[in-house]
Amino acid sequence: QVQLVESGGDLVQEGGSLRLSCLASGRTFTIKTMGWYRQAPGKQRELVADITNSGSANYADSVKGRATISRDIVKNTVYLQMNSLKPEDTAVYYCYARASRVYTEYDVWGQGTQVTVSS
User: Fold this and answer.
1) Buried b (16+ CB within 10 A) or exposed e, 68-90
2) What local confidence, expressed as pLDDT, does residue 102 receive?
């Protein structure tokens, strides 16, 4: 199995920047994609960005141009750099990984890290 631990959540002012990190452990060689979702109070969890093993990244429209996802395969870590933060970015950010096992894939989630943007 794969385990994920996020870090980097914080309280920041509007316009500020933040970098979230997610460290994967366990059967990391089975990971195909890693990324970030977020969930604001009263809202559904939504994709922020993800990145494949080959480095292909995908972003939500709401963060395009403000967020950069990167992945260090050797360190088994994925990062989310967010700039020009807005109050609407306030949410719990969850790291996820899609991993493979025989004939199937499964998703693993971290425990979440709180990002709060004050206006």
Assistant:
1) bbebeeeebbbbbebeebeeebb
2) 85
Q: How far apart are CA 49 and CA 17, in angstroms?
A: 16
Euclidean distance between CA atoms 98 and 13, whole angstroms: 32
Cα–Cα distance for residue pair 110/24, rounded to 1 Å: 9
The pLDDT tens digits of the residues spanning 69-117 come to: 999 989 999 999 999 999 999 999 999 999 998 889 999 999 999 999 9
Q: Which residues on neighbouring strands pair with residue 77, listed in sequence order?
A: 23, 72
Tokens 């693993």 found at: 108
Distance between CA atoms of residues 5 and 69, nearest Å: 16
SS3 114: strand
Residue 97's beta-bridge partner residues?
A: 34, 108
Instruction: Judge whether residue 34 has pLDDT over 90.
Output: yes
Q: What is the pLDDT of residues 49-69, one digit of tens each?
A: 999 999 999 999 999 999 999
Assign 53 to helix, strand or coil.
coil
